[in-house]
Write a structure and sequence with these properties.
Layout: H1 2-31, E1 46-54, E2 57-65, H2 69-91, E3 101-112, E4 115-125, E5 132-141, E6 146-148, H3 150-156, H4 160-172, H5 181-187, E7 198-200, E8 205-209, E9 222-226, H6 228-231
Parallel strand pairs: 2-3
Antiparallel strand pairs: 1-2, 3-4, 4-5, 5-6, 7-8, 8-9
């Protein structure tokens, strides 16, 4: 009986620690649901929210903040361009007072070794049958303090476009949402503009294809993953 009583405090401490860890896990997991964010932390994950509501438009943008000035500068530059372009379009259309024109920007975050990747999802409505959608990415090399794009991947492997073209066709052709082979072939031709949007993940290079790039609007956007072993 004495032995059992002496063990109980230790068991209680272990149970308390496990409970705290479990609670912290679910708080972390749930706190970024609306951003669909991956918490991989070589950087402090933080963001600011930009909002503007002036009839007839509303703007909502989640803007990440990293530990790197160059990366923050690139992020803010590109998002500000999107906001300015949206406002410019509103000024140059026949505004209908009964409509609310909207711009929404959200993002995902990925990380692999010394690479950080931000994927931005933009939806804007300026009239018409449906909103417009766009995906763009910003990739950063921590070690060399450098923004990474498809040209840099070509410096590592001059045949990277041909590889990405072949792999993306092999994967996408099996997707039931691909309904136009000509669109698929054109949108995956080995050209830089077809593979500008990518992210470094733990499992491989993620490629993003915008609305209309490989399929009609009704099919949406696409993303696939290509193994690093196939690329480098």
């Amino acid at each position: 009986m004495v032995i059992i009583l002496r063990k109980r405090p230790l068991l209680l401490i272990i149970l308390i620690i496990l409970t705290i860890v479990n609670v912290l896990y679910y708080i972390t997991k749930s706190s970024g649901n609306y951003l669909n964010t991956y918490y991989i932390t070589k950087v402090d994950f933080s963001y600011k929210k930009y909002e503007e509501k002036i009839h007839p438009y509303e703007i909502s943008a989640y803007i990440p903040i990293s530990n790197y000035d160059l990366l923050n500068k690139e992020i803010n530059y590109k998002i500000n361009r999107k906001i300015k372009a949206f406002k410019y379009n509103i000024k140059n259309i026949d505004v209908q007072q009964s409509l609310c024109y909207t711009l929404n920007i959200k993002f995902d975050f990925y990380s692999y070794q010394n690479y950080l990747s931000y994927v931005f999802f933009i939806e804007d409505y300026t009239g018409g049958a449906h909103p417009n959608h766009e995906i763009f990415t910003i990739n950063y090399d921590e070690e060399n303090n450098k923004i990474i794009d498809i040209k840099n991947l070509r410096e590592i492997n001059p045949k990277v476009l041909e590889i990405l073209s072949c792999k993306s066709r092999q994967i996408l052709i099996t997707n039931s949402k691909i309904v136009d082979i000509n669109m698929l072939m054109e949108g995956t031709r080995p050209k830089e503009e077809n593979f500008n949007n990518f992210a470094f993940s733990n499992h491989g290079l993620i490629l993003f294809f915008n609305y209309y790039q490989v399929a009609p609007y009704s099919s949406g956007s696409f993303e696939i993953e290509v193994s690093y072993d196939d690329i480098f």
